Amino acid sequence: MSATRVLVLNSGSSSVKYQLLDMRDSGRLAVGLVERIGERGSLVRHTPVARGGESREWTGPIADHDAALKSVAEELARDGLGLDSPELLAIGHRVVHGGKSFTEPTVVDERVLAEIERLIPVAPLHNPANLTGIRTARALRPDLPQVAVFDTAFHTTMPESAARYAIDVETADAHRIRRYGFHGTSHAYVSRATAKLLGRAPEDINVIVLHLGNGASASAVRGGVCVDTSMGLTPLEGLVMGTRSGDMDPAVIFHLMRVGGMSTDEIDTLLNKRSGLIGLCGDNDMREIRRRVEEGDEQAALAFDIYIHRLKKYIGAYYAVLGRVDAIAFTAGVGENSAPVREAALAGLEGLGLAVDAELNAVRGAEPRLISPAGARIAVAVVPTDEELEIANQTYALVGKSR
Fold first, then answer.
1. CB 154 within 8 A of CB 226
2. Which is it for strands 327-331 and 379-382: parallel, antiparallel or unpaired?
3. 151 flagged as catalytic
4. CA distance to 71, 151, 211, per residue, from 279 (Å)
5. Which of 149, 206, 208, 205 is nearest to 182 (CA)?
6. Bridge partner list, 147
7. How far apart are the C-alpha atoms of 73 and 48, rounded to whole Å?
8. pLDDT, tens digit, for every residue of 182-216?
9. Phi and psi dihedrals of 35, rounded to 5?
10. Residues of 287-322 as b/e, b for ≥16 C-beta within 10 angstroms?
11. Mean per-residue pLDDT, 134-158
12. What does each C-alpha distance from 297 to 71, 101, 276, 342 come to in angstroms?
C-alpha cells in the first residue's frame, strides 16, 4: 500500500495544533489540539473525524513540546492512525518566518534547522516553537521526511519596491530588515480558491485577499503571485488587529521611551499585546464589539470605525497597486463570519465597482460564496481559509515528487 497520509503540525509557544489528512481525497482523518503546554492544567482535545468518533478531551500536566507530541502520537494510535503507520508519508510543519532564504516548502535537514534558528531574532515568539516541534517530530520518526512550509514564502515574490523599507541600505541588509509578510499559506490558498470560485485560472485574475482574524493582513495578488502585503518585518505592521496596533508613526516609540520612560520590552508588549481593538475598547472579539456597538457603546463604535478605516485604506491602496481588480476575498474568523465588517469595509466604494448584496452578505456558510450583486464589475467573495490543507498539499507535492 502506498503512503498517502500527511500529518500537519502547527507548534505554537504553548500549544500544538494538528491534523492528519489522506491526500488521495484531501480528507481529514483526525484533528486535535494540545494547549497550555508547561502548565498543570494542559488540555488535549482529539477528534477521529474519519471514523465518525466523538471528540476526546483530557487535562493533566504536559511539561513540554516533546511530551505534547508524544500525546498526539498516543491519541492517533488509539484510533489506529499512529505515527508508525506505513501509510504516513511525511509530516508538514508550519514555520512562521523563513526570511529570504526559503521561497518554497523545504525538506528539513540540519542546514534548514540552522537557518530557521538564525531567524529567531525577527520571529522570537514563533520560530523557537516551530523549531521545537520539528525536532521532536524528527526524534519520534527519524526516518520520515519532515517538511517546513513557511508563512513568508508566498510573499517572497514581492518586488523590491514593495519589500524594501526606505532606510539606509547597508543597515537594512546587515540586519535583514525588509518586509516579509505573513499568513502566506492562507493568502496562497484563498487566492487560488477565489479563482476556482470564479471558474478562472489563478494566472488570469487579480485578487485582494483580506485575512481578518485576531491577526489580520491584506495582500495584493496579481496572476497568482503576491506583489504586496500589509505585514512587514514582523506581524505587527499593517491592519488594526485584535491586540496589535498595525501601522503607526515609528516616532511614537521614541516618544514613549523619552517621555514615558518605557523600556523596549514594555513598548513591545504594548504594541503587540495591549493595542489594536483590545487597546481601543478593551475587547478583541469582533462579536462582542459589534454587540456593544449595537447597544450604543461609543468606545466600541470608535474602535470599529478605526478598524474599518484602516481596512478601507488598504483596499484602496491595493486597488491602485494592481491597477485591475477582479475579486476581493474575505477570509479567516472575522472575514468569514462578520457581515457588518464586510459591509462597512466596502461601503462608499461603489464608484470603484465594489459592493455587497445585503441578503447574500447575511448568509452564513462553510463553502466559498459570492456576496456581490449580480452583474457586479468586481466579485466580492467569502472564502473560508484552510491553512492545514495548504500545508498538507505542499508537503505531499514536495515529498511525492522527490520520491
1. yes
2. parallel
3. yes
4. 37, 26, 21
5. 149
6. 92, 107
7. 13
8. 999 999 999 999 999 999 999 999 999 999 999 99
9. -130, 170
10. eebbebbeeebeebbebbebbbebbbebbeebbebb
11. 93
12. 45, 47, 17, 20
| 20 closest CA partner among 9, 12, 33, 11 | 9
Amino acid at 97: H
- With a pLDDT cut of 90, the percent of the chain lying above it is 74
What's this model's pTM, rounded to 2 decimal places?
Answer: 0.91
List, for residues 362-388, the tens digit of each pLDDT value. Answer: 999 889 999 999 999 999 999 999 999
Helix, strand, coil content of the chain in percent (nearest 5): 40, 20, 40
* 393: its cell numbers: 498539499
Q: How far is Cα 42 from Cα 32, in angstroms, rounded to an integer? A: 13
Q: How many CB atoms lie within 10 A of CB 93?
A: 26
Among residues 22, 79, 143, 151, which one is catalytic? Answer: 151
Q: Which of 14, 56, 61 is nearest to 35 (CA)?
A: 14
**pLDDT of res. 403:** 58
Distance of alpha carbon 243 from alpha carbon 16, whole angstroms: 21
